[in-house]
Amino acid sequence: MDIEALCEVWRINNAINLEMLDACDEKLHFELKPGKGKTIRSNFVHMIGVRKMWMEEKMKKESALIPKLDWKTAKKSEIKKALQLSSEMMMELFRKYAAAKKPDADLKTLRFFAYCVAHEAHHRAQIEIALRINGHEPDDKFLYGLWEWSKK
Protein backbone atom coordinates (compact mmCIF):
# COMPACT_ATOMS: atom_id res chain seq x y z
CA MET A 1 0.00 0.00 0.00
CA ASP A 2 1.23 3.49 -0.82
CA ILE A 3 0.70 5.26 2.49
CA GLU A 4 1.74 8.62 1.07
CA ALA A 5 -1.01 8.40 -1.57
CA LEU A 6 -3.49 7.63 1.20
CA CYS A 7 -2.21 10.65 3.15
CA GLU A 8 -2.64 12.83 0.06
CA VAL A 9 -6.28 11.78 -0.15
CA TRP A 10 -6.65 12.62 3.56
CA ARG A 11 -5.16 16.05 2.86
CA ILE A 12 -7.84 16.57 0.20
CA ASN A 13 -10.53 15.48 2.67
CA ASN A 14 -9.29 18.10 5.09
CA ALA A 15 -9.08 20.74 2.35
CA ILE A 16 -12.79 20.16 1.76
CA ASN A 17 -13.46 20.58 5.49
CA LEU A 18 -11.59 23.89 5.36
CA GLU A 19 -13.53 25.02 2.27
CA MET A 20 -16.78 24.23 4.07
CA LEU A 21 -15.58 26.14 7.13
CA ASP A 22 -14.58 29.13 4.97
CA ALA A 23 -18.07 29.11 3.41
CA CYS A 24 -19.67 29.47 6.84
CA ASP A 25 -20.00 32.90 8.39
CA GLU A 26 -19.18 32.73 12.09
CA LYS A 27 -21.90 35.15 13.14
CA LEU A 28 -24.55 34.18 10.60
CA HIS A 29 -24.18 30.39 10.33
CA PHE A 30 -22.38 28.83 13.30
CA GLU A 31 -25.51 28.32 15.45
CA LEU A 32 -27.63 26.83 12.65
CA LYS A 33 -28.78 23.21 13.05
CA PRO A 34 -30.15 20.57 10.69
CA GLY A 35 -33.24 20.00 12.80
CA LYS A 36 -32.35 18.68 16.27
CA GLY A 37 -28.73 17.86 15.42
CA LYS A 38 -25.45 19.57 16.17
CA THR A 39 -24.89 23.19 15.26
CA ILE A 40 -22.51 23.97 12.42
CA ARG A 41 -19.91 25.02 15.00
CA SER A 42 -20.35 21.83 17.02
CA ASN A 43 -20.07 19.63 13.90
CA PHE A 44 -16.62 21.06 13.21
CA VAL A 45 -15.60 20.81 16.87
CA HIS A 46 -16.83 17.22 16.94
CA MET A 47 -14.66 16.25 13.95
CA ILE A 48 -11.61 17.66 15.73
CA GLY A 49 -12.56 15.89 18.96
CA VAL A 50 -12.88 12.54 17.20
CA ARG A 51 -9.50 12.99 15.55
CA LYS A 52 -8.01 13.75 18.97
CA MET A 53 -9.70 10.68 20.44
CA TRP A 54 -8.20 8.40 17.78
CA MET A 55 -4.74 9.86 18.30
CA GLU A 56 -4.86 9.38 22.07
CA GLU A 57 -4.62 5.64 21.49
CA LYS A 58 -1.28 5.57 19.62
CA MET A 59 0.02 9.15 19.89
CA LYS A 60 -0.86 10.19 23.45
CA LYS A 61 1.81 12.88 23.79
CA GLU A 62 1.14 14.42 20.37
CA SER A 63 -2.63 14.33 20.84
CA ALA A 64 -2.27 16.72 23.77
CA LEU A 65 -1.24 19.42 21.27
CA ILE A 66 -4.72 19.43 19.74
CA PRO A 67 -6.91 21.82 21.70
CA LYS A 68 -10.19 20.66 23.22
CA LEU A 69 -12.51 23.24 21.74
CA ASP A 70 -15.81 24.26 23.30
CA TRP A 71 -18.67 23.28 21.00
CA LYS A 72 -20.63 26.37 22.07
CA THR A 73 -17.95 29.04 21.82
CA ALA A 74 -15.10 27.91 19.54
CA LYS A 75 -14.07 30.63 17.11
CA LYS A 76 -13.65 30.02 13.40
CA SER A 77 -9.93 30.75 13.64
CA GLU A 78 -9.53 28.17 16.45
CA ILE A 79 -11.43 25.56 14.45
CA LYS A 80 -9.35 26.21 11.34
CA LYS A 81 -6.08 25.92 13.23
CA ALA A 82 -7.21 22.72 14.98
CA LEU A 83 -8.40 21.17 11.70
CA GLN A 84 -5.02 21.89 10.12
CA LEU A 85 -2.99 20.57 13.06
CA SER A 86 -5.12 17.48 13.63
CA SER A 87 -5.08 16.66 9.92
CA GLU A 88 -1.28 16.55 9.90
CA MET A 89 -1.32 14.41 13.00
CA MET A 90 -3.90 12.04 11.52
CA MET A 91 -1.55 11.43 8.60
CA GLU A 92 1.11 10.40 11.12
CA LEU A 93 -1.42 8.08 12.72
CA PHE A 94 -2.21 6.47 9.35
CA ARG A 95 1.52 5.97 8.85
CA LYS A 96 1.77 4.26 12.25
CA TYR A 97 -1.12 1.93 11.40
CA ALA A 98 0.47 1.06 8.05
CA ALA A 99 3.87 0.41 9.63
CA ALA A 100 2.49 -2.13 12.11
CA LYS A 101 4.21 -5.50 11.91
CA LYS A 102 0.98 -7.41 11.44
CA PRO A 103 -0.14 -9.37 8.38
CA ASP A 104 -3.40 -7.41 8.09
CA ALA A 105 -1.90 -3.93 8.67
CA ASP A 106 -2.87 -2.70 5.18
CA LEU A 107 -6.49 -3.75 5.60
CA LYS A 108 -6.74 -2.24 9.09
CA THR A 109 -5.21 1.01 7.82
CA LEU A 110 -7.59 1.21 4.87
CA ARG A 111 -10.61 0.36 7.01
CA PHE A 112 -9.66 2.99 9.60
CA PHE A 113 -8.97 5.57 6.88
CA ALA A 114 -12.33 4.87 5.18
CA TYR A 115 -14.12 5.20 8.51
CA CYS A 116 -12.46 8.58 9.18
CA VAL A 117 -13.30 10.00 5.74
CA ALA A 118 -16.89 8.70 5.91
CA HIS A 119 -17.34 10.17 9.39
CA GLU A 120 -16.17 13.61 8.29
CA ALA A 121 -18.24 13.48 5.08
CA HIS A 122 -21.30 12.75 7.24
CA HIS A 123 -20.66 15.88 9.29
CA ARG A 124 -20.05 17.99 6.18
CA ALA A 125 -23.46 16.81 4.98
CA GLN A 126 -24.95 17.84 8.33
CA ILE A 127 -23.43 21.29 7.87
CA GLU A 128 -24.76 21.57 4.32
CA ILE A 129 -28.24 20.49 5.45
CA ALA A 130 -28.17 23.02 8.30
CA LEU A 131 -27.37 25.77 5.81
CA ARG A 132 -30.11 24.66 3.39
CA ILE A 133 -32.86 24.15 5.98
CA ASN A 134 -32.19 27.58 7.41
CA GLY A 135 -32.36 29.42 4.10
CA HIS A 136 -28.62 29.77 3.44
CA GLU A 137 -28.37 27.57 0.33
CA PRO A 138 -24.76 27.32 -0.83
CA ASP A 139 -24.36 28.18 -4.50
CA ASP A 140 -23.93 25.41 -7.06
CA LYS A 141 -20.37 26.44 -7.93
CA PHE A 142 -19.32 25.92 -4.30
CA LEU A 143 -21.21 22.63 -3.94
CA TYR A 144 -19.88 21.13 -7.17
CA GLY A 145 -16.41 22.35 -6.23
CA LEU A 146 -16.48 20.15 -3.14
CA TRP A 147 -16.48 17.14 -5.46
CA GLU A 148 -13.60 18.25 -7.67
CA TRP A 149 -10.98 16.33 -5.72
CA SER A 150 -8.55 16.34 -8.63
CA LYS A 151 -8.31 20.15 -8.29
CA LYS A 152 -7.53 20.14 -4.56
Could you explain how this protein is built, in words?
This protein is 70% helix and 0% strand. The model has no long low-confidence stretch (mean pLDDT 95). α1 runs parallel beside α6 (105-133) and α5 runs antiparallel to α6 (105-133). It has seven helices and no strands. It is mostly helical and 152 residues long. The chain is globular. The chain has helices spanning 3-23, 26-29, 40-58, 60-63, 76-99, 105-133, 140-145. The longest helix has 29 residues, at 105-133. It has a single domain (3-146), classed as Four Helix Bundle (Hemerythrin (Met), subunit A).
Q: What fraction, in percent, of the residue positions are helical?
A: over 70%
Radius of gyration: 16 Å
Structural class: mainly alpha
Might you state the CATH topology name? Four Helix Bundle (Hemerythrin (Met), subunit A)
Key traits:
Four Helix Bundle (Hemerythrin (Met), subunit A), mainly alpha, 152 residues
Question: Secondary structure elements and their pairing?
Answer:
Elements: H1 3-23, H2 26-29, H3 40-58, H4 60-63, H5 76-99, H6 105-133, H7 140-145
Helix pairs in contact: 1-5, 1-6, 3-5, 3-6, 5-6
Summarize the structure.
The chain is mainly α and 152 residues long.
